[in-house]
Amino acid sequence: MTVAHILESLRGGLVASCQPVRGGPLDQPAHVAALALATLAGGAVALRLEGLPDLKATRPLTSAPIVGLVKRDEPGTNVYITPLLSDVRDLALAGADIIAFDATIRERPVPVERLVAAVHEHGKLVMADCSTFEEGLAAWKAGADFVGSTLSGYTPHSPALDGPDLDLVRALGKAGVRVIAEGRLHTPEDARAALHAGAYAVTVGSALTRLELMTKRFVDVLRDAPVEA
Ligand SMILES: CC(=O)N[C@H](C=O)[C@@H](O)[C@H](O)[C@H](O)COP(=O)(O)O
């Protein structure tokens, strides 16, 4: 798939992040592949997949662009999304089209510029997962092809919000950054608001593929509601 094709297919569309609750009943590569196909059947234009087993199970089944990442606990750092050059290589070889990594200002084993270069050397596109405007702009200037609001709310120096960080999306969009809104988009209205705020595309995860969490949202509301029947 060419870069132009990937860019065009993502524009204004929904990226389905298929990352089940780890250890839960859907946490099997075959189930993740099925979730991915179901979201594509519903109109998602691309997938976001974590971990090599899930990526390898899904890649042969679709030509839709895949954002790949690995999460790992790396000693001495809080950076857990694709921290290493070996992760970039593994994701590239497993067929990711876009490789996402943490581009926050936290202590990291490999500098952002080096990760950007490695992704491009493999002929893949970069998605820089950020938590603030400064991080996003820096990653964009370092050559990222997409900047995600993914990590807003997940670093100590970003705001803790219940919903998506649309202010971050708006600020990055205004600065000319190709920004993907990601994180705590729970409803179609959230997705539309993100596009209005300037997002190039929108990634939704839990609301589509973490059934335990979405079920719990209903259950919690019912528990607190008076029963009138
Ligand atoms: C912070 C972090 O590690 N985010 C991860 C990144 O891949 C995933 O756990 C999220 O599910 C994904 O960003 C989509 O967000 P939401 O599930 O809120 O729609």
Explain how this protein is built:
40% of the residues lie in helices and 15% in strands. The N and C termini lie far apart (56 Å). It has 229 residues and is an alpha/beta fold. Helix 2 crosses helix 3 and helix 4 (85-93) runs parallel beside helix 5 (112-121). It has one domain (3-200): TIM Barrel (Alpha-Beta Barrel). 46% of the residues are buried. Strand 2, helix 3 and strand 3 (66-69) form a beta-alpha-beta unit. It has ten helices and eight strands. It binds N-acetylmannosamine-6-phosphate.
Please state how the strands of the largest beta sheet are arranged side by side: 1-2-3-4-5-6-7-8
SSE ordering = HEHEHEHEHEHEHEHEHH
- Which range does the strand content fall in? 5-15%
Termini Cα gap:
56 Å
Helical content stands at 40-55%
Number of helices: 10
The count of β-strands is 8
Specify Rg, calculated over alpha carbons. 17 Å
Please identify the top-level CATH class: Alpha Beta
Which parts are unreliable, with pLDDT below 50 for 5 consecutive residues or more?
none
Fourth-tier CATH superfamily name: Aldolase class I
Report the sheet with the most strands, covering strand number, pairing sense and barrel closure. Answer: 8 strands, parallel, barrel
Mean pLDDT: 97
The shape, in one word, is globular
What structural class do the secondary elements suggest? alpha/beta
Ligand inventory reads:
N-acetylmannosamine-6-phosphate
